[in-house]
Amino acid sequence: MNESIEKTRCLIIGSGPAGYTAAIYTSRADLKPIVYQGMQPGGQLTITTDVENFPGYPQGIKGPEMMEDIRKQAARFGADIRFGVVTDVDFSKRPFIIHADDGKTIEAETVIIATGASARWLGLESERKFRGSGVSACATCDGFFYRGQDVAIVGGGDTSAEEATYLSKLCRKVYMIHRRDSLRACKAMQAKVFNSSNIEMVWDSVPEEVLGDDTGVTGLRVRNVKTGEIRDLDVTGLFIAIGHTPNTKIFKGQIDLDEGGYIRTVPGSPRTSVKGVFACGDVQDHYYRQAITAAGSGCMAGIEAERFLGR
To answer: What is the set of active-site residues?
Structure first.
């Protein structure tokens, strides 16, 4: 046997609310899990400012601070949490073989995937500058902070239509910016948008620059793709709703993915198409995408891994 291969009963790929919660449950079950945190330890919440909708924090909490709390909780019970990225997996037989960028090869009896999904951004330098200071990729997470204000949202699909409608109930005005002259959202979602009196469609347009100062976003410059006309919108918040990309590249060909690249799980469970491999959080959830639902699914994955090993 190659002595360079490290063995574990449970390997968790990814961190964030899902991965860290799975680590809490599996470490408390004495599975001694190894956790590779990935390229963004703590997940998307580490680029979020205030979190006010996670239970247990009545005054709210900063996203990075909350993720550090959950990480410490997992470490307290003995989870081996490592910096690094898993680069390759072999799920063709158990124990599974996993390679990481630290040069280590792991032989795991069970694997929990919690690699999440990355928001698609516009790619503007000004957008990057004001991320977390007026620019957000989650209206459900951050819309509350813009109650009574004017905001803009970019996108034309079901998600953007749903988030625009959500924002319209909180904000004074919502500019919905779409590069085409019609929405891609389903008719029912379109109807909700068009029936919201405070949503103004900005057709055939794309964001050119996010305007702001030390206080955050103060406006958005948009360009009409047909006429070239430039227009400045007086907004204090910008929401990007052009989709997410699940972080599943290394799992292609190893596990069943849906047409969007998300991991398919048995409805109501974290079980995947490979026995002994479980998925939790945004990597298998393209609907809710909330910290609390990710944590809940991480709990489920941890329990399932323990029960699987107990069979």
So the answer is: 138, 141-142
**311 has a pLDDT exceeding 90:** no
- According to DSSP, the β-strands at 135-136 and 244-246 are unpaired
Measured CA to CA, the distance from residue 122 to residue 154 in angstroms comes to 9
Domain count, the chain: 2
Asked whether residue 135 falls in the same domain as residue 215, the answer is yes
Q: With beta carbons less than 8 A apart as the criterion, state whether 15 and 38 touch.
A: yes
Asked whether residue 111 falls in the same domain as residue 138, the answer is no
Q: Say what the pTM is.
A: 0.79
List the one residue out of 245, 215, 223, 216 whose CA is nearest residue 121: 245
H helices within the chain, ranges in order? 16-28, 63-76, 125-129, 139-142, 158-168, 187-194, 291-310
Both ends of the chain: CA-CA distance in Å?
26
- Looking at the fold, whether 98 and 177 belong to one and the same domain comes out as no
Distance CA 186, CA 199 (A): 17
CA angle 106-111-117, nearest 5°? 110
Across the range 213-240, mean pLDDT stands at 97
| CB-based contact 45:16 (threshold 8 Å) | yes
The length of the chain is 311
CA distance 288 to 266: 17
- Tell me the pLDDT band of 1, cut-offs 50, 70 and 90: very low
Do 135 and 114 reside in the same domain of the chain? no
* Domain around 156: 121-240
Q: At residue 44, does pLDDT exceed 80?
A: no
Angle of CA points 174, 119, 215, to nearest 5°: 55
What's the alpha-carbon Rg for the chain, to the nearest Å? 21
305 with 278, same domain: the answer is: yes
Give the pairing of strands 61-62 and 50-51: antiparallel
